[in-house]
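Customer escalation, tier 2.

The customer says the design service returned an amino acid string that "doesn't look like it belongs to this structure." They asked us to rerun it and document both sides in this ticket. The original structure tokens are below, unchanged.
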């Protein structure tokens, strides 16, 4: 049971975060070939949100890094970066086959990194 976690039935991606903090519920799941996205909201605070996406090489993603604090980061042995701006945190990394973006609002950086580190292959 420790290795199991819930993946929405609509999710068609290969990877998914295995650790979502308590109090968050799935809001929307979008899956297109080469682009899969899930958004979570916090039932106790409308100012907290988590968005995870798995993207193929044909996908373009814009990350707001203007005036952000940007640092290199390693997620599960893969290089990426973390951008912090106000109460938004963006984590980008790729595994050589797909790239991932985790965006959080109202969550501290340590928690955001834990979510990113929890991403596991599900198929």
């Amino acid at each position: 049971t420790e290795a199991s976690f819930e993946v929405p039935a609509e999710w068609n991606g290969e990877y998914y975060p295995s650790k979502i903090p308590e109090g968050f519920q799935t809001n929307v799941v979008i899956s297109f070939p080469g682009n899969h996205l899930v958004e979570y909201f916090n039932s106790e605070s409308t100012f907290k949100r988590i968005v995870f996406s798995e993207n193929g090489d044909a996908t373009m993603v814009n990350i707001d890094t203007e005036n952000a604090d940007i640092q290199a980061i390693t997620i599960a042995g893969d290089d990426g970066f973390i951008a912090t701006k106000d109460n938004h945190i963006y984590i980008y990394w790729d595994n050589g086959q797909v790239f991932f973006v985790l965006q959080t609002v109202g969550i501290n950086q340590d928690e955001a990194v834990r979510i990113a580190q929890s991403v596991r292959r599900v198929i």
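Tier 2 assessment: The sequence is consistent with the input. Helices lie at 109-117. The two ends are 17 Å apart (CA to CA). Sent an explanation to the customer and offered a walkthrough call.
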